[in-house]
From TrEMBL, chain A:
<dbReference type="GO" id="GO:0006623">
    <property type="term" value="P:protein targeting to vacuole"/>
</dbReference>
<keyword id="KW-0677">Repeat</keyword>
<comment type="subunit">
    <text>Adaptor protein complex 3 (AP-3) is a heterotetramer.</text>
</comment>
<keyword id="KW-0472">Membrane</keyword>
<dbReference type="InterPro" id="IPR011989">
    <property type="entry name" value="ARM-like"/>
</dbReference>
<dbReference type="InterPro" id="IPR016024">
    <property type="entry name" value="ARM-type_fold"/>
</dbReference>
<comment type="similarity">
    <text>Belongs to the adaptor complexes large subunit family.</text>
</comment>
<dbReference type="InterPro" id="IPR017105">
    <property type="entry name" value="AP3_complex_dsu"/>
</dbReference>
<dbReference type="GO" id="GO:0030123">
    <property type="term" value="C:AP-3 adaptor complex"/>
</dbReference>
UniProtKB/TrEMBL annotation, chain B:
<keyword id="KW-0168">Coated pit</keyword>
<protein>
    <recommendedName>
        <fullName>AP complex subunit sigma</fullName>
    </recommendedName>
</protein>
<dbReference type="Pfam" id="PF01217">
    <property type="entry name" value="Clat_adaptor_s"/>
</dbReference>
<dbReference type="InterPro" id="IPR016635">
    <property type="entry name" value="AP_complex_ssu"/>
</dbReference>
<feature type="domain" description="AP complex mu/sigma subunit">
    <location>
        <begin position="1"/>
        <end position="142"/>
    </location>
</feature>
<dbReference type="InterPro" id="IPR011012">
    <property type="entry name" value="Longin-like_dom_sf"/>
</dbReference>
<comment type="function">
    <text>Component of the adaptor complexes which link clathrin to receptors in coated vesicles. Clathrin-associated protein complexes are believed to interact with the cytoplasmic tails of membrane proteins, leading to their selection and concentration.</text>
</comment>
<dbReference type="GO" id="GO:0072583">
    <property type="term" value="P:clathrin-dependent endocytosis"/>
</dbReference>
<keyword id="KW-0254">Endocytosis</keyword>
Length: 960, 143
């Protein structure tokens, strides 16, 4: 048979470069497959050597090769055995099956009379060791630490560390030997022992404190820098556990710091002084301050060394560590640190960024942020230089914005350098935002600057941080009263900026739009031109399906949330604008006259038209909002139309009123007849409330114009939201009737039904709701209790057993809750949305797939948490808000299904999230709400709701 | 401690690869590729010899067309490993006599043997150039 030597293999590889290589390697591997079966151990060894070489190049050997390698390891000649051990070390893994056979072989070689064979076996063992091998060979290795040859002793000690990693009890078995070896006659052996002790000391510092005297002796007597570095490092690990050690260590370490010419040792000393908490020692003499100062000065010298980037890097690394305890010392080198942020080296820039972020204070933040912002702009200007035409910064920003969004993974990101720079820029932007928001914006003194010169430019030019910026924009506007007019104006400007096409499709634009909608809606009184803003808040480009709207889940989630916020914000803005037109109270309002009628009806018509575009959205969060408001706008439009006609005919105002009444009464038939008392009384109370609110406004200033101008504004909280301290949440008492212990659920079984039966049932309930099932919640108390116990048991079992099985059990039960489908039966496109796994509507649908359901729950919680995070906790005047919200909701729900429908579903949700083990209190809480909440109540999630939830969540935690 | 030692040329071909922490074959290939992409484009003069990689740090040095990379723990002393690399290259240079890439390619198993004399189980085993070289001479005479 033709046998190829290693040399010819290498030559062959060199002549088959590129695409040919793979085919060539395949033929070689084929040859090797035959060669390893050869009876000639030389041939076998050569084949194994070739395998090893190919492995290095990234062609892993097939599993058949393991046994021949073992055979070569067992060869009697040293140079063949060596090849076997090399191959084993390079190719074997923890799960290589032949390793079981290796134990005796390795053991035999360890006890060989030939020190070369012992050495090669020890070397090989360090790499192929498994827990089994370690356990079996530990006594041999420990015994060999006393080998007559120093070269074997030092290897044995090093391999002992590998053994401990796989078999920790070996440490105790070999402890005394290890201790002895610190005093070995051979310096290499001592050095190796210190290496191992240093690694182990990091993991078991308390245990190794016992060796301190010996180690201290080595520290003061040795001149081997390699070993000194390890010793100093080791003491850095040990000293936090033994304060007395510090006093003893400081003199030798100080003397090393001041005398050593070796920078690596100096650096190690400084590091250990910091990490070993040696600067905390306060003996009254101020010597620790002196030491800190000399450390920082040495590091600063490293930092200012323009020749050596390595020193610069390690200096920054250490300065970051010393910063928390000695910020004033680091502050002295402020300029050098900020200068390092412009270094060519990414690692250096990142560390400088760490430092800069740590150094931020009320005085320095602005300077640092401005510097970083300038840094962000740099690549743009560079690109610009390379570009053909010299364009302004705005144009560059525009181009940047245009190329942002889904095109992040575009061709420009493929080259590594631009990849690094993109992620680096994102990192800078993230740090800026983090610095700004740290400690509730404690470092910021000028919020107009923060909003106008930091947040908005970041939103426009920086990819990947839009969600953070969106949250902060809302947060800052909400917390800082003074900045509101400015923020609203800025958002209005952003909306109107055609060059950025805010109605577009990118993630950044969606986030910007959501922030604008929230801010303009909430602080409507500052909006300069509501008429235009309303239009801009609901751009048709917001609808999905446009260009660039791929299958990106992230984006579609953001789109849904943006759509719902925009619908709410636009309507809110309109409502208040209309009301202020009538009362003349608006910022730009003049007294009402009928000439404004046309303006209002135009805007109302536009808004109504836009809302109708969203009615058919698959996400119920969006569709329901749109549907509700679109419906209300029908009244408004009708009334305005009437008013216009009336104005044209100059009829008395009384007529209008009558018309409005007529319009209102015409609304009633749309809703189904009330089914129970609460709904029946609702109609009256709302009517009362409406008149009450309009009469209250009429007290302050005479409302004029059509009544419908006031139809919408009572739906929103009159008082603006304000921040509430985190502590204040605790003061909110839980509602007296809130009982999280009692199940609201009725007859729903926790026994898993037969799958086919379940499907049938589902179909049946999905198709036509049976009223007997609706009556379920009125089950006897006893049944409820036992049911709940059963569920609890199931849940706890699920936790102890495989976590996947039990939650599924509960999930499946939930699908038996029949009403779930009903509540949304009149919503179109529900089926699609459930298959799309829409997060928002997860609650209302019973998904056919258990895992999907779980995912939905989790997503929903994520959304919820996110929204809660966006909002600062607490709401001013939650009562009014709740009142308005529930009124609105009940109205909507009465048009759909009886309220009892929801009561079944809610406990189901509560226990579902419990069952998957990620339930938030908010979920549980919703389950225990008052008996009359409706499906919409659960689904609804606007700004106010989120807050309410967060508050309730807090209450839930307390009770739990 | 040292997690892996790699020697790669400018095209990313491995000339030596020693993993002291076990990785699967696929992972090894992936790591080699990642490290090459991290190291190769770096500027020799204006950038440091350290790169952060996963939870580790790569300390590397370039000699002619070869990158000698040590992947070490994040809390290790970078400067010391920089010296260790240099020591390794000095030993190679003395052993082969003005070492070049082809020496490493055709004597790859010897390079591993030299490596094993200097580093073991992720630790520096011997730092004395004299000791290492005399040991290598002794091994050479055996063959």
């Amino acid at each position: 048979m033709f046998e190829r030597t290693l040399e010819s293999l290498i030559k062959g590889l060199r002549s088959h470069r590129g695409a040919d290589e793979v085919a060539f390697v395949a033929t070689i591997q084929d040859e090797i497959r035959h060669e390893v079966r050869s009876g000639d151990v030389q041939v076998k060894a050569e084949a194994v050597l070739k395998l090893t070489y190919l492995q290095m190049l990234g062609y892993p050997p097939a599993s058949y090769a393991s046994f021949p390698i073992l055979e070569v390891m067992a060869a009697s000649q040293y140079h063949i055995k060596q090849v076997g051990y090399l191959a084993a070390a390079q190719t074997f893994n923890q799960d290589t099956d032949v390793l079981i056979l290796a134990t005796n072989l390795v053991k035999k070689d360890l006890h060989s009379s030939n020190p070369l064979e012992v050495a090669v076996a020890v070397n090989g063992l360090s790499r192929i060791v498994t827990p089994d091998l370690a356990q079996h060979l530990a006594p041999d290795i420990i015994g060999m630490m006393n080998h007559s040859k120093p070269s074997i002793r030092k290897r044995t000690i090093l391999v002992f560390h590998s053994l401990i990693a796989h078999y920790p009890p070996a440490l105790d078995q070999g402890w005394h030997r290890l201790q002895e070896k610190l005093d070995d006659a051979d310096p290499s052996v001592v050095s190796a022992t210190v290496n191992v002790v240093c690694e182990l000391g990091r993991r078991y510092p308390k245990k190794f404190l016992a060796l301190s005297p010996q180690l201290f002796g080595l520290l003061t007597n040795s001149t081997n820098n390699w070993m000194l570095i390890k010793l100093v490092k080791l003491f850095g690990y040990l000293s936090p556990h033994e304060p007395r050690l510090v006093r003893k260590l400081l003199p030798p370490i100080k003397s090393i710091i001041s005398t050593t010419p070796a920078l690596s040792l100096l650096y190690e000393c400084i590091n250990s002084v910091i990490s070993g908490e040696m600067l905390a020692l306060d003996d009254g003499s101020g010597s620790s301050d002196e030491l800190a100062e000399s450390c920082v000065d040495k590091l600063a010298a490293f930092l200012e060394d323009e020749e050596d980037r390595n020193l610069k890097y390690v200096a920054l690394l250490s300065l970051v560590r010393i910063l928390p305890t000695h910020p004033h010392l680091v502050g002295r080198y402020h300029e050098a640190i900020l200068g390092s942020m412009e270094d060519e080296d990414l690692s250096i820039r990142m560390r400088a960024l760490d430092l800069a972020a740590g150094m931020a204070s009320r005085e320095t933040l602005r300077g640092i942020v401005e510097r970083l912002m300038a840094h962000l702009e740099e690549p743009d200007t560079k690109k610009q230089k390379r570009g053909t035409a010299a364009e302004g910064g705005a144009a560059a920003a525009l181009r940047k914005a245009l190329s942002s969004g889904p095109s992040v993974n575009g061709p420009q990101a493929t080259t590594p350098s631009s990849l690094v720079s993109t992620s680096y820029r994102q990192e800078i932007a993230r740090r800026i935002l983090l610095m700004g928001s740290s400690n509730t914006y404690a470092h910021i003194d000028d919020f107009e600057w923060y909003v106008g010169d930091v947040l908005l430019p970041l939103l426009r030019t920086q990819e990947g941080v839009a969600d953070l910026v969106r949250g902060q924009l809302i947060d800052v506007t909400l917390r800082v009263r003074a900045v509101r007019p400015f923020a609203v104006e800025a958002m209005e400007k952003l909306l109107g900026d055609a060059s950025w096409s805010i109605g577009g499709q990118g993630i950044e634009q969606l986030h910007a739009l959501a922030a604008a909608a929230w801010i303009c809606g909430e602080y409507h009184e500052h909006v300069l031109n509501p008429r235009i803003a309303v239009d801009l808040l609901l751009p048709t480009g917001l609808l999905p399906g446009g260009a660039g709207d791929g299958n990106d889940d992230d984006q579609s989630d953001i789109r849904v949330s943006t759509m719902s916020v925009c619908i709410h914000g636009a309507v809110k803005l309109f409502a208040h604008w209309a009301a202020s037109l009538s009362t003349g109270a608006g910022s730009n309002g003049s007294d009402w006259d009928d000439t404004r009628l046309e303006e209002v009806s135009n805007v109302a018509a536009l808004l109504s038209e836009r809302l109708n575009l969203f009615v058919d959205q698959p996400h119920c969060e969006v569709a329901e909002r749109a549907r509700e408001y679109a419906h209300l706008f029908e009244f408004v439009l009708k009334d305005l139309e009437g008013a216009q006609r009336a104005a044209a005919a100059s009829k008395p105002v009384g007529e209008e009123r009558a018309k409005k009444q007529a319009a209102q009464s015409s609304a009633t038939p749309l809703a189904p007849p009330p089914t129970d008392e609460s709904t029946a009384s609702w109609g009256e109370s709302t009517a009362l409330n409406l008149t009450a609110s309009s009469s209250s406004t009429s007290l302050s200033s005479q409302p004029r114009g059509p009544k419908s101008l006031h139809l919408l504004s009572p739906l929103f909280t009159p008082a603006p939201m304000g921040p509430v301290a985190a502590q204040a949440q605790k003061k909110v008492p839980p509602p007296p009737h809130l009982d999280l212990r009692t199940s609201l659920g009725g007859e729903w079984s926790v026994v898993m039904p037969e799958p086919p039966a379940k499907k049938d049932k589902e179909k049946a309930t999905g198709a036509e709701p049976s009223s007997s099932k609706l009556a379920a919640p009125s089950g006897s108390k006893k049944t409820k209790k036992s049911k709940r116990d059963e569920i609890d048991r199931n849940i706890s079992e699920g936790k102890s057993k495989a976590s996947s099985s039990s939650p599924k059990l509960v999930d499946d039960d939930l699908e038996d809750v029949p009403i779930v489908r009903l509540s949304l039966s009149d919503l179109p496109g529900l089926a699609e949305s459930s298959s799309a796994g829409g997060a928002r509507n997860g609650e209302a649908e019973s998904k056919s797939d258990g895992s999907k359901k779980r995912k939905g729950t989790r997503d929903r919680e994520k959304d919820l948490l996110q929204e809660v995070e966006e909002m600062p906790p607490g709401v001013a005047g939650p009562d009014q808000k709740d009142g308005a919200a529930s009124r609105r909701k009940e109205k909507a729900s009465s048009a759909k299904s009886p309220p009892s429908a929801a009561t079944l579903q809610q406990p189901a949700n509560g226990s579902a999230s419990k069952a998957v083990g990620v339930g938030t209190p908010a979920d549980v809480d919703r389950g225990a709400e008052t008996p009359s909440p409706t499906p919409t109540m659960v689904k609804k999630k606007d700004g106010g709701k989120a807050k309410k939830k967060s508050k309730r969540a807090a209450a839930g935690v307390m009770i739990d | 401690m040292i997690r892996m030692i790699l020697v790669q040329n400018r095209q990313g071909k491995s000339r030596l690869s020693k993993f002291y922490t076990p990785y699967s074959e696929e992972e090894q290939v992936k790591i080699k590729g990642e490290i090459h992409r991290l190291i190769a484009p770096r500027d020799q003069k204006y950038q440091s010899n350290f790169v952060e990689f996963r939870n580790y740090k790569i300390v590397y040095r370039r000699y002619a067309g070869l990158f000698f990379c040590f992947c070490v723990d994040a809390n290790d002393n970078e400067l010391a490993y920089l010296e260790a690399i240099h020591l390794f290259v000095e030993v190679l240079d003395s052993f082969f006599g003005n070492v070049c890439e082809l020496d490493l390619v055709f004597n790859f198993y010897k390079v591993y043997a030299i490596l094993d004399e200097m580093f073991l189980g992720g630790h520096v085993e011997e730092t004395s150039k004299q000791v290492i070289l005399s040991r290598l001479e002794y091994l050479e005479r055996l063959e």
